[in-house]
Amino acid sequence: MKWLQAMLWGALGTVLLGLAWSIPSYLRAISSQVLWASRGEPQLISEASSLMSLRQAGMAEIMLHTLESMNDPEAPRLRANWETYAERFPEEVAQGVAGSPFDALPKDTMRSGDLVMDWLMDPTVRETLSQGVTWHDRILQTAIEIAGEANSYEMFAPVGEPGGQALESVLLLVGLLHSQGHLTASLIEEIKAASQGVNTASDEAGMEGLCVDIMVLARRLNWGQLIGVFDQLTNRRSLRMLATESTRSEQRLGIAVTALWLCQDDSTLSDYYQAYPARAFEYLAQAMRYGRPSLDLLLSRSLPVHKRGAYEQIGNLLTVGAVSDFLSQVAARHHVIAWCLRQILTALSLLALLNALFCLSLFQSRQQVASPRYHLHRKLILVLMGMIICLSFTEPFLAQDVEKEQNSPTWKFPMVVSPGVDFPDPTMDTQVTQITLLALAVFFLLQVGIYALCLVKIREIKRQQISSNLKLKLLDNEDNMFDAGLYVGLAGTVLSLVCLALGIIKPGLMSAYASTLFGILFVSILKILHVRPYRRQLILEEALAEA
Predict the structure, then answer these.
(1) Nearest C-alpha neighbor of 213 from the set 117, 79, 85
(2) pLDDT interval class at 233 (50, 70, 90)
(3) pTM value?
(4) For residue 30, what are the β-bridge partners?
(5) What is the distance between the alpha carbons of residues 110 and 326, in angstroms, rounded to a whole number?
(6) d(Cα 357, Cα 375) in Å, to the nearest integer?
(7) pLDDT tens figures, 249-274
(8) Which H or E run contains 306?
């Protein structure tokens, strides 16, 4: 009968655990299943096709390259449509849009396929295009004139002096963008603010940094792509983010530009890049596979993307596909509710599995005489300890530290270092990281759980209606259990050192040694403040009974 009960409890616990693992809701990550559940229009393939029909070849080309870098199955079909389009409109493909200002240039200066900065570095091109610049904002015009005359730049020479062609080209580009209505009002205000201190400070946050960012983008994009970018830009942080990505790889720049085009607010995009500078482009690519709604959900939650792991796959195997899809929809719409439901199901599954073990008499004697409430206390403590372990191993990015890479451009002036100065590496990293804090918290909570189990066992012995001599023997029998804190503490230390040596995770030496320290402290408190006084009381009671 007990075997049958154990099998039923075990089956129930397994199903509940599968349901819990099928809920893709996490504290510090967003699951790729949730992004899939939030899919919707416009998709990249449909957006790129629409751009080609609107004669915006530049942005369509960037989206095509982005789809190909993501190995999207629809990419070959879009590539065939693009080649047909390129054969029909080669001039538009070269400039990225119909009606480029470069179309007004003399035919002998036409160079198919050149990028914006390559055109603007030609003096003839600059002279021709400058005649078509119409300023609708006098304050901005004055700001640009002051910026061209400034002599405090480190990377640019003033306009009109030798070497001033680069600055003249950038400022002319700003004028072209403004005259054709491709600068947003907020970005215009930032340009004005940057120009106010142009002769008092020259740094990356000033006018020079702004000009460098614009120049870098103009060296990577054609006119259609550039105006597509500036139509969406509302702040300098987004401009700096794109300029930074353009110095790293074409793939990352393409993903960043595509995300800028699809997202509702470029401020959330720049914030996301600032939070995850090393892998933001990878997370954004995963979200853009499923369309704008998935991208907006990722940016609104501002979390890294977690691909389905082994335990999630096991959970999906244990549940019906429709149930897994429904749980993904719940996690997409109600993140907090889904996460709480995941923890509740995990706790219930652990309780059911513990009942199965108790039915097999693995955690209790066959002649147990204690009150059933102590069994419940033990089960609840063990469930809480199991929850701590489950959270530690199933929550992705729970102990991830802030990414060291900064979302800043790579143009830096070299620093001269004296050859006689040596900078030795530190012998020990004493920095307290998030994974160290997590390991400390887990070890501490496990020790608290073991301590509570031991207190329940002592109270259980106290309440039994037996002689003092027999209680003493029961206390002696539980001596190994009272030392369990030491065993767990040593195991935590060994596990931390092994992980540190293998490079799996780096919890730090502090957490490794603290594990044993916690075990010593809790076992000492237990035996000195609880076991020893109670044993003394029992010895005295036994002696008085014999007298």
Answers:
(1) 117
(2) very high
(3) 0.78
(4) 25, 305
(5) 57
(6) 12
(7) 889 999 999 999 999 889 999 999 99
(8) strand 305-306
